[in-house]
Amino acid sequence: MDHQRAILLLADGTTYEGKAVGKIGTTTGEICFNTGMTGYQEVFTDPSYFGQLLVTTNAHIGNYGTMNADTESDSVKIAGLICKNFTVPYSRQIAESSIQDYLEGEGLVGISDVDTRALVRHIRSKGAMNGIISSETFDMDELKKQLDAAPDMDGLELSSKVTTKEAYTLGEESASYRVAVLDLGTKQNILRNFLRRDCYVKVFPAKASIEDIMSFSPDGLFVSNGPGDPGAMDYAVDTAKEMLEQEKPMFGICLGHQILARAVDIPTYKMHHGHRGINHPVKNLITGKSEITSQNHGFGVSPEAIAANADKVEVTHRNLNDDTIEGIRIVGKPAFSVQYHPEASPGPHDADYLFDQFVDLIKENKA
User: Fold this and answer.
1) What is the per-residue DSSP string for 218-235?
2) Which residues participate directly in catalysis (predicted)?
């Protein structure tokens, strides 16, 4: 396959040249990197990556092709792809298409043959920043102009762009438990984990009212993952506060964790370059055990604010790389959350117990 030239320009003026992959075009977004060795299609379709240019640290992308069963949403959600070796021939017999055909069909612009090791070191040093990929325009002044017009992730609300437009149900209405999901950009495997635990699930748009949510008569309330800055999501924080008032078991993952923290007046902050990958060690402070976790977040909850509000919030999990807060539970409420992704099979099953913990809370509450 003959590749056209492509260029990557970062907000600080750093440039990388490479070859065009996917669709020929131009795209902008905040640059981030994922350290996972596999699962590229799940990452591409994770709504939490909406608006971001993804750097894959694994040297080979595309070698096992793509298939519909590996998607986490209805389309590719990353804004652009940056990789080292882009492999069009694939080895997996059950794959349905090559990565090039898949990305072209999804309209995704990308660049390969980039020194991703140098690029990741640059991001780790300088921090997350916006970038632009183009395989159609090589006028640096024009690219800089387009890049300058791209919004910063800090202060950006994005969940309303990826949430479901209409509420929908999954599973059997006769199931033992009813779970209402506030969809801020949920992954499909989260929903499948509820279904496997005999739950009937109703997924609500991000801006659904508490009246709509409670009209489902849920036994448990879940706040999903999603993209953007939790500090720009007062509407979701207000809903989470109202959820807490229901005294129903409540569970949050990733952005849902940050929204739950904000609901009890714990602020969030933008991280230097975030956590993204499937190999991050986290310690469960309750059991003393460590877990290998899947992560995808560029914001965190304030450890200082949590320390000052020990009467409201208990820390349950900490990141063993940098000691950031990875899990909390609300004092006096049947509510807890984690910053990482237990549904993404890290470990591969280290964090499955969190779904069981949620269902156990529901059982206790119904008893």
Assistant:
1) -SEEEE---SB-GGG-HH
2) 254, 341, 343
Q: Which two tokens stand for residue 86?
A: 């882009």
Answer yes or no: do 166 and 216 share one domain.
yes
The distance in angstroms from the start CA to the end CA of the chain is: 62
Mean pLDDT of 219-227: 98
The total of structural domains in the chain comes to 2
224 and 270 both lie in a single domain: yes
Q: pLDDT tens across 170-202, in order?
A: 999 999 999 999 999 999 999 999 999 999 999
Residues 103 and 182 in one domain: no
Q: Which domain holds residue 298?
A: 159-366
When pLDDT is cut at 50, 70 and 90, the band that residue 349 belongs to is: confident
48 is in an annotated binding site: yes
Mean pLDDT along residues 223-231: 97
Max Cα separation, the chain?
Answer: 67
**Is residue 325 in some structural domain?**
yes
- 16 strand-pairing partners: 8
* 299 assigned to a ligand binding site: yes
Q: How far is CA 320 from CA 200, 282, 292, 293, 316, in A?
A: 35, 5, 10, 11, 13
Confidence band for 2, pLDDT divided at 50, 70 and 90: low
The share of the chain scoring above pLDDT 70, in percent, equals: 99
* Secondary structure letter of residue 245 according to DSSP: H
**Per the residue annotation, which of 275, 297, 317, 341 is the catalytic one?**
341
- Indicate the burial class of 241 (C-beta count within 10 angstroms; 0-12, 13-18, 19 or more): middle
Residue 367: per-residue pLDDT: 74
Is 321 found in the same domain as 217?
yes
User: Choosing from 254, 257, 297, 326, which is the catalytic residue?
Assistant: 254
Identify the CA nearest to 159 among candidates 241, 255, 227.
Answer: 227
**Is 343 designated active site?**
yes
* 3-state SS class at 294: strand
> What value, to the nearest 5°, has the Cα angle with vertex 287 and ends 282 and 293?
25
pLDDT at 1 over 50: no
